[in-house]
Structure formats: structure tokens, C-alpha cells
Amino acid sequence: ITTIEQYFQPYITYSIIYTWLDNITQEVLFCLKIR
User: Fold this and answer.
1) What's the total number of domains in the chain?
2) Mean pLDDT score of the chain, rounded to an integer?
3) d(Cα 11, Cα 17) in Å, to the nearest integer?
4) What value does the CA radius of gyration of the chain take, rounded to a whole number of Å?
5) pLDDT reading at 1 higher than 80
6) pLDDT exceeds cutoff 90 at 28
7) In angstroms, rounded to a whole number, what is the distance separating the alpha carbons of residues 20 and 23?
8) Which domain range does residue 16 map to?
9) Distance (Å, rounded) from C-alpha 28 to C-alpha 22?
């Protein structure tokens, strides 16, 4: 169980960061389109 947690923890963290960056990118592109 510990090994599985160690394996998935970085993946979950990466997924959250990736989603967060994707949201920022979408907002930036949206602002650029308005201009």
C-alpha cells in the first residue's frame, strides 16, 4: 500500500499542477483575444 501511495502521490500532484497551469493558460489566451 505504501509503495502504491508513493507511486501515485507525484502523479496526483502533477495532475493538480497541470490543471492549474492549464486554467491560467486559458485565462491568458482569453485576455489576449479580448485585446
Assistant:
1) 1
2) 90
3) 10
4) 15
5) no
6) yes
7) 5
8) 4-34
9) 10
CA angle 13, 17, 18 (to 5 degrees): 115
**Hey, what's the cell of 18?**
497541470
Place of cell 507525484: 10
pTM of the shown model: 0.55
Residue that is written with C-alpha cell 492549474 in the block: 20
Query: What's the residue count for the chain?
Result: 35
Residue 6 carries which side chain, given as an amino acid letter? Q
Q: With a cut of 90, say whether residue 4 has pLDDT above it.
A: no
Alpha-carbon distances, residue 33 vs 2, 3, 10, 29, 30 (angstroms): 47, 46, 34, 6, 5
